[in-house]
Structures are given as structure tokens and as C-alpha cells.
Amino acid sequence: MAWQSEGVHGIVGRARGSRARRAADFARNHFAGCQAHTHEASAVHMALESMCGSPLADLNPDAVIRDVLPKYGVHPGTARDSLDAIELRLAIEEEHRARDLAALALVRVANENAMKALLGPRADKSSWDPATIWVRSVRGVINYRVRLQAQPCTCADERSEMPSSNEMQRTKDG
Question: For residue range 135-168, what is the model confidence (pLDDT) as tens digits?
């Protein structure tokens, strides 16, 4: 079989390529009018797919994050059942010696991880409370990433360097 001869790296490369193509299609379909938004839309789509662990067909940019991720088993304030997540939970419970405090700390860590994944490398510059990531729209996350990146944005009129959130990419047609 062909897949046996190409090895794991070939399969992983094809999967990444497919994810990148879906992300680029999403970005072009919804944010083609602005290069900064197109770039960030692609990055957010890829992050969401990575978090979901499966392809996101027909992602609506106006969908709320909490409505997108639970469909794929990612819920606000919960971590996936991985060895790392279990070890983290045990370490927090051991440190706090109280399940209520440990539960709150785990929710906080999960919210921070979701926010970091969605906002990317400049998430540490965000003024958002991590718990609010779940009530943000996909478009809102993309707009905020553009603002954090301080990339030139062509969505607003020429009188302002950086448009307000209300001016940025509100509709598909701009």
C-alpha cells in the first residue's frame, strides 16, 4: 500500500497540508479584503482545528467559541484526558490540598491554554480575562489578533491607523 511506503512523516505532512488548505480557504472566503485579517483568520482556523482534533467544515466566523469547540469535545474550563492533563490535575490537587481550589485552578489553566492557543504568540499582551475567551466570536478573536499584531489593517477608512473593533471585518463584504 502507498501509505505504508511513505511513512509517518508523509502522512503527517499531508494532514498538515490539508489543514493549511482548509484554513486558507476559510480566510479567503471570509476575510479576503485585508491581508492582516486573512493571515490571522488562517491562524485561528488552524488553532481551532488543532484544538478540535478534526476538520472544521463550514466554520462560521460569527460563531461563538463555546459553540464551536464543545461539538468536538473541548469544553470551557476542561482539559483533555491526556497524561499531561492528569499529571497537572494531580499536582494542583497535591499543592492545594483542597478539591475546590484545585478545580478552580484547573479551570483557570484550561481557560488560559485555550486563550493562548487562539490568540497565538502575543497572547501575553492581551487584556482579556482568559475566562472570556468562550464568549468571543471567531471573528472577534481574529480582529483582536490583528490588533495585537499591530499589522496594517485595510478594513477601516484611511483616517485611522488601526480601526476600532466595530470597524474591523464586520461582514464578508467588508
Answer: 999 999 999 999 898 767 877 554 345 555 555 5
Q: How far is 174 from 163, CA to CA, in rounded Å?
A: 13
| Cell matching residue 112 | 488560559
Q: How far apart are CA 151 and CA 161, in angstroms?
A: 10
Cα–Cα distance for residue pair 165/151, rounded to 1 Å: 14
Place of cell 484547573: 106
Neighbours of 158 (CB within 10 A): 6
What is the pLDDT, as a whole number, of residue 117? 94
CA angle 134, 139, 145 (to 5 degrees): 85
Query: Residue 74's pLDDT is what?
Result: 61
Task: Using DSSP, state whether 125 is helix, strand or coil.
Answer: helix
DSSP state of 155: S
Q: What is the DSSP code (8-state) at residue 164? A: -
76: which 3 cell numbers? 470551557
Give percent of the chain above pLDDT 90. Answer: 36
